[in-house]
Amino acid sequence: MAEAIEKFKLRASEEARADLHAITEQDRAAADQRRAYSFRLIAEFKDAIGPVIETVFSDSTQLEASARTLTCSADQSQKLFVEVAAASEEVSANVQRSRSRQAK
Question: Distance between CA atoms of 67 and 56, rounded to whole angstroms?
Fold first, then answer.
């Protein structure tokens, strides 16, 4: 009888070990599937969003270049405005002097 109980305990222990091994393998397989799914999602996201990011980067580079061009144009326009204003004042002063001389 003691031998039968010992065999029963041994068999129960082996079954428990086999069950634990099976559960561990199932967990490992499930983790591998989740990892593969995650990598697939990341790759799909990268494929979908990559061209958008490249387009935005390219457009921002073009906008930056346009902004620099506009800044240079504005600076040049301001310089020309100052020159025109000075020339206008000079012309106005010359006209005033000319009128003063004609009035005398």
Answer: 16
